[in-house]
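STRUCTURE:
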């Protein structure tokens, strides 16, 4: 009877050691793939953009203003004023104080 119990414990011990070895192999595989993934991301980021540093923010403001022009009208034989709205974008760099 005691031999049967010791055989059961030995078999349980062997199964536990086998499971521990398999789990450590799986953990190593996961860690290796995570490292490869991060390395690939770093290489792609470096080849596409390189290191980027944000120095200051850029603000783009659309501006619409009334522009008046003097043009010569041949039909009327005199100068006339033409008014139109001009669209423009202005860019401003924010400054740190």
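SEQUENCE:
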């Amino acid at each position: 009877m005691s031999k049967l119990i010791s055989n059961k414990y030995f078999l349980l011990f062997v199964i536990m050691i086998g499971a521990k070895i398999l789990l450590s192999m799986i953990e190593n595989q996961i860690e290796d793939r995570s490292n490869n993934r991060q390395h690939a991301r770093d290489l792609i980021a470096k080849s596409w953009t390189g290191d980027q540093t944000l120095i200051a923010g850029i603000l783009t403001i659309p501006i619409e203003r009334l522009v008046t022009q003097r043009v010569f009208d041949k039909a009327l034989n005199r100068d006339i004023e033409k008014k139109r709205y001009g669209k423009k974008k202005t860019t401003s760099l924010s400054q740190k104080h």
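REMARK: The mean pLDDT is 81.
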